[in-house]
# Entry
Amino acid sequence: MITFNKTHKFYFYITFIFLFLFISCKYHHGNNTKKKEHIKNSTKKNVDSKTSVEKENLNLSELSLKTGISMTGNENVLLYQTISEWLGTPYKYGGKDKNGIDCSGFVIIVYTKVYNYNLNNSSFKMLNDTKAIEKSNLQEGDLVFFKTYKDEVSHVGIYLKDNKFVHASSSKGVLISDLNEDYWLKTYYIAGRVNLK
# Structure
């Protein structure tokens, strides 16, 4: 049978206390490391989120400058990015690229890229792709039709917002115009909405 004298008891208690403190410190340090990692990850997420918002705001500012339309963040950004890439492209009857494009060709390209929807290949035939709507109910992406040649639909554009629409003009190429301009008021025929569902 083992017997403990005072010295043995003293060393036993010291060893026990030392082990207890060592284990406690290690556990505490491990928790601190996990806390630090959690804080670090949370901070990184916040920074990434902030950077993403800043980039989006910068993108909206650039698109506002390019298009002349005040962007609020509720717009279809892909639509505005796409049309901003085409602004200034010259008009060419039957054209389908940046060397020259006509009104229906432009609308077809934008609708394919932005909405993944294939429209008919002429402004007149595009009427069949839409449901007629009142001018006062126009929404972003709706089509606006004009009779610029004789008494038939001969021009089409895409409505944006604030009475603005984008189109390929035979005289100025791809640009953004206002429905309240005299020429477009005079030649306006109808608006149509494509069922994208």
Notes: Helices lie at 6-67, 77-86, 103-115, 123-126, 182-187. Residues 63 and 69 are 8 Å apart (CA to CA). The chain has five helices and eight strands.
